[in-house]
Fold:
Amino acid sequence: MAQNQSLMKRIDIETPSQTYVTIGECVKNGQVEVDHIPGNEKKVDILTKALGRMKVKEMRDLISVQDVVKYGFKLKGENVGVSLKLI
Structure:
């Protein structure tokens, strides 16, 4: 388990004997499997961090978001392609 258990999150597991167990206990019991994700592959970064244009394109591809510039997308009559162009 983590060295600082006070920071462990608690999750609700419906079992007769206990309502709340730590994630570490769930891992130990085989209810949850935890995998390491390298920092450069975390998909949430596109929504939470300021990224360079190449990293934005890479992350955008990971979450299957398409570049609207190639479709001639317009917003209220304005061509927003210049501001949305990532590459």
